[in-house]
Each structure stands twice: as structure tokens, then as C-alpha cells.
């Protein structure tokens, strides 16, 4: 299966338009039509309806495979180019918002680093495809357990930090006076859904969805009573509301360093600083 044809198919399906896909890819509309026809001929099935432009059942199934396949190809290209290039003098570090904590702040050199704050789900792909030299990603885990990361490419993963969790409540919340809280106690509570920042609670009811990476804005929403949010204890305690430690289940906020193989040059120096003395 030709990856160029596959990229054209994914673009047409995403934009629901042959002409829009042609403009984005820099092809003529005729070339885009030929790409789709060639891919359909290779697979011997129709992948897109034409009016309106939409994936057929076979096209929908192909889209499920296309994203991981194309990401793997991009990661392989980036890995080879990274090995062929001389070690760069600057380092680009991707970090999820809650991974920007004491370990990172203490490790950052005065110059030579570009920090990109991304939603947690985007950090592994940014490292795998060469957009960033290193990545710091965070999430929920049992103590000493690794995070469950998407399988975008072979990455070297090193634990950097683990810390306790707390629920951030508004001052008038019935549980604001507790010394600790069980997650089961909040089964009927409303939570803020913040995929770009927050720690996911799949069983929780969402009161409000926040699409962004501004941690101060998320804490302000929680303390104003728009929903609860689970945060690293140090972050919750620094906010204006009330931070109640989570006692059950026994979970931690874990941060991990991602690198494409063994870092070199300035990236190796920063990775060593980030993992120095790490007990996880």
C-alpha cells in the first residue's frame, strides 16, 4: 500500500472534499482523484462515496489503521534523520502541563532549551516524529507502575517523579473540611473534563469541558464551583480552593521522560539532569 496514496485518502476523508484536499496537499484535484482511484484499485473496494464525500464502511476501517501506520512512518523517518544529523546545540522539550513541575524547573539550563507545552496525548508523537528531542508526560498510575502510553514508536521511557494526589474543591463544598477523601465518596460529584491538562477519570460525570492547557484557568474553574478536578497535591494546595488528599484508591501522579533511543549532545545532558537521583 503506497503511503502517498494513504495520506491523500486520509486528507480527503478528514476534509470531506477532493478540492480542499488538493489545496492542502499541493496537488491538482485530478491528481487527488487518481490517488483515490489507485488506492481503491489496489484494495479492490470503494473507500469513499463521492456525493457527499464520506468514507464507506471499508474506508472507515482503513482510517482506523491509517493513523498509526502513517505515524510509524513519520517516526521511522525522524529516527533515521536524527541519527544522521550532528547533535544539535539546542534542545526542544515537549511537556504536558502537569509535568512542568519541580524536577523540570530545577533541571532546565539557563539557555539552549525550547519548551513546548502540549496535551499529554500529543507528547509521545511529538518525540517519535522528531518534532521534539525529549518529552515529559504525566498521568495516573499505581505506585512504581509505568504509565500506559500510546504505541507510536519505540521510545526510551524513564520514570522521573511520583507524587500524591488531591481533589481541588471550592471552599463551600461539603467535603472541604475532610483530611482525606476516597474517590468512591465522590461518585456522584460533577468533574471538569480537561483532556489537555487533567488526569482522566473515565467513570466521572463531566460538569464542564475545558479545552486548553492553562493550569491556572482550570484551577479557577474548580475553585469557582464549576466542577471538581484531580491534581498533583502540590498543585492543588497552591490553588485558591481547598485541596483534600486522595486516600483511596492508592494512586500517584507519575511523570516520565521520553526519548527516541539514547539521547546525544545537549539532549543527553538535559535528560541526565531530569533523571538525576530519580527514585522511580
Extended strand count: 13
Instruction: Specify the structural class.
Output: alpha/beta
Oligomeric organization of the protein chains: single chain
What is the string of SSEs from the N terminus onward?
A: HHHEEHEHEHEEEEEEHEHEEH
Q: What radius of gyration results from the CA coordinates?
A: 22 Å
**pLDDT < 50 stretches:** none
Strand order of the largest sheet: 4-3-5-13-6
Described by the principal axes of the CA atoms, the overall outline is globular
Task: Specify the biggest β-sheet.
Answer: 5 strands, mixed
**Counting H and I runs of at least 4 residues, what is the number of helices?**
9
Mean of residue pLDDT values: 90
What percent strand? 15-25%
Distance between the termini: 42 Å
Describe this structure in a few short sentences.
With 280 residues, the protein is α/β, with parallel strands linked by helices. 36% of the residues lie in helices and 24% in strands. It has helices spanning 3-15, 18-25, 29-43, 57-84, 102-107, 123-128, 215-223, 233-238, 265-275, and strands at 48-50, 53-55, 91-95, 113-117, 134-141, 156-163, 165-169, 181-182, 190-193, 205-209, 229-232, 242-248, 252-259.
Describe it.
The chain has 9 helices and 13 strands. The protein is α/β, with parallel strands linked by helices and 280 residues long. The strands form 4 sheets. It has a 5-stranded mixed β-sheet. A 4-stranded mixed β-sheet has the order 8-12-7-11. 34% of the residues are buried.
Amino acid at each position: 500500500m503506497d503511503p502517498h496514496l494513504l495520506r491523500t485518502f486520509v486528507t480527503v476523508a478528514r476534509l470531506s472534499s477532493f478540492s480542499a484536499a488538493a489545496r492542502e496537499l499541493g496537488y491538482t484535484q485530478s491528481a487527488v482523484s487518481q490517488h483515490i482511484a489507485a488506492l481503491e484499485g489496489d484494495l479492490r473496494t470503494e473507500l469513499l462515496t463521492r456525493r457527499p464525500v464520506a468514507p464507506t464502511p471499508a474506508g472507515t476501517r482503513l482510517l482506523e489503521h491509517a493513523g498509526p501506520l502513517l505515524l510509524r512512518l513519520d517516526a521511522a523517518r525522524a529516527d533515521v534523520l536524527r541519527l544522521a544529523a550532528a547533535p544539535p546545540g539546542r534542545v526542544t522539550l515537549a511537556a504536558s502541563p502537569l509535568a512542568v513541575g519541580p524536577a523540570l524547573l530545577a533541571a532546565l539550563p539557563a539557555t539552549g532549551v525550547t519548551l513546548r507545552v502540549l496535551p499529554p496525548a500529543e507528547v509521545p508523537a511529538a518525540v517519535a516524529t522528531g518534532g521534539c528531542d525529549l518529552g515529559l508526560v504525566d498521568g495516573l498510575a499505581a505506585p512504581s507502575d509505568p504509565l500506559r502510553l500510546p504505541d507510536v514508536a519505540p521510545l526510551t521511557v524513564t520514570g522521573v517523579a511520583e507524587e500524591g494526589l488531591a481533589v481541588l474543591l471550592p471552599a463551600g463544598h461539603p467535603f472541604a473540611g475532610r483530611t482525606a477523601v476516597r474517590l468512591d465518596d465522590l461518585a456522584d460529584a460533577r468533574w471538569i473534563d480537561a483532556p489537555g491538562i487533567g488526569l482522566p477519570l473515565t467513570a466521572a460525570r463531566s460538569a464542564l469541558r475545558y479545552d486548553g492547557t492553562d493550569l491556572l484557568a482550570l484551577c479557577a474553574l474548580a475553585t469557582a464551583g464549576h466542577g471538581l478536578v484531580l491534581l498533583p497535591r502540590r498543585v492543588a494546595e497552591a490553588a485558591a480552593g481547598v485541596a483534600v488528599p486522595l486516600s483511596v484508591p492508592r494512586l500517584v501522579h507519575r511523570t516520565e521522560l521520553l526519548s527516541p533511543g539514547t539521547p546525544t549532545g545537549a539532549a543527553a545532558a538535559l535528560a541526565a539532569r531530569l533523571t538525576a537521583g530519580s527514585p522511580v
